[in-house]
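Could you help me review a protein record that somebody else here produced? My question to you is simply how this chain folds and whether the tokens agree. Thanks in advance; the entry in question is below:
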Amino acid sequence: MIRKVLAGGINSGILSRQKFLLLFKEFFRKSIHLCSAFIPFFLGISYVSVMISLSCVLCFYVVSEFLRLNGKQVFIISAVTEAAARKRDENKFVLGPVTLVCGILAAAFFFKPLPATIGIFALAFGDGLASLAGKLFGRIQIPGTEGKTVAGSLTCFTAIFISCWSACRFNSCCMGIDITFVALVVASVGMFIEVFPLKDFDNILIPVILAAVSQLLIFQSVY
């Protein structure tokens, strides 16, 4: 009887530790997503410098990942990658940072500043907070989505709606536009994209598609 109690306590402790480590990795990974919300601010200060810097960071990361996979650690970068890697990424090229930077670069390059900002904010807040909410509060899973939860999807919608509305509210381009309608459409599309099991490729689709949708809604309405 005592052995069973001790074994149960040990197993419970192991499971709790594993859950804590998974949550820590998710929080650490999504904190990088959240930090990308500062990119539009820096793009407004020096667009070319930021675009070049992001491209250089991307290239440096790709090289460091190939070196890491070949047993050669790169100072800080390899440690950060291993700390943030999901279980599915173990002993593989960690693609998340690549798609994250590519999504930001594409949104900033192909779209006007406000739509690009909305797309990047959606990636930072919508996608970033959805996963955390799902891990912490998700109880009801959505069928066919490989574990996506109702809590995560609602968090994604809310975060994108608020960030989009706020970006439009303080931008002169949106004078005379129903920004609540724009935010509702953008948030709905963002939630629809996020619910699909796209793995790391939602980092590209979310900023690009939402930037395109917001550009169509805002500037078609203006002109």
Observations:
- Residues 5-11 have pLDDT under 50 and may be disordered.
- The chain has one domain: 27-222.
- Residues 44 and 75 are 31 Å apart (CA to CA).
